[in-house]
Amino acid sequence: MGRRQLALKNWVAKQITGFALGVDEPITLEPVAGDASFRRYFRVQADKQSFIVMDAPPEHEDCRPFVAVAQQWLAAGVRVPKLLAEDLDQGFLLLEDFGDQLFYAALNSGTADGLYASAFSELVKIQSIPAQTLPPYDEILLRREMQLFHEWFLQRWLGLSLPRSQSSLLAKVESQLVEAALAQPQVTVHRDYHSRNLMLLPDAQIGVIDFQDAVAGALTYDLVSLLRDSYIHWPEEKVAGWVEQFQQQSPLAKSMDVAAFKQAFDWMGMQRHLKVCGIFARLCLRDGKTAYLQDIPLTLRNLYQSAQRYPEFSEFADWLQSQVIPTVNQQPELQGRELNDRWYI
């Protein structure tokens, strides 16, 4: 056992003893599924109770945003894990255990309508929380995210060096997407509100995790993260119906024209898909997390299908279809997983 894990184990034992729980046997830390960061999560049980421990090395992660957002969202009635103990200097947090039932695992054609309705209700709560204290999802951040597509996805993973005409095309698309995002009503944004960051709790509520990167940003951002998920694909008519359903639930969205809201949703999705393609490539190349490459085809498919719906992006869609998608399909890591091999549930 490494020095850090031993320190974590000793800290957890001390916290649990402080709760006056019985600890008759040595504490064991059972790893649970992590995320795309340097954070690690463990489950620990004592006196028939279960807890989650977050290990966030301070040199890589800052726990303070997690703590601040958790406290604010709990006060607003959003179902995030309760914070039971913290040591910010070491990067240790003891949290309520939400169990293992992922929203993603429960989604199918029979459950989707009900599950998404619950997720919409939780999202409306999140968007009602004042966003003034959160970092802004501003032009600098939006552009920095899309630069990941150029640097990590196109250049480093695919090995594509763009001529000036294609670089200019990409820059024009990015400017259009930034302008559209900043024109939307700005609200509290989770920033990764998708099927693997939502939990189904025993009381039938939706539990929300991985919220520490919350920002003040575009109204449609979290909705597109949920409905144009990188891990699950639905027919477009289903997605359009859910977008309209959310619009009717959201006071802010309801004030917008239906077609304008759908366009804002699609264009915001394009910005996110550009970012996510870059992040998945970086996770593989920099961090050795190769499994994320398998989620690139669906993400790229979502990007292309959104672009081709709008005349403003017809040239960009043609470039994706003629240059980028064929190059992706040739990558050895994706053999047998062509774009049109992805599934509808």
UniProtKB/TrEMBL annotation:
Keyword terms, alphabetized: ATP-binding, Nucleotide-binding, Transferase
Q: Which residues form the Aminoglycoside phosphotransferase domain?
A: 28-249
Q: Which InterPro entries match?
A: Aminoglycoside_PTrfase, Kinase-like_dom_sf
Please state what the protein is called.
Phosphotransferase
Keyword Transferase assigned: yes
Which species does this protein come from?
Nitrincola iocasae
State the source organism's domain of life: Bacteria
Which is an annotated GO molecular function term of this record?
ATP binding
One Pfam family name from the record?
Answer: APH
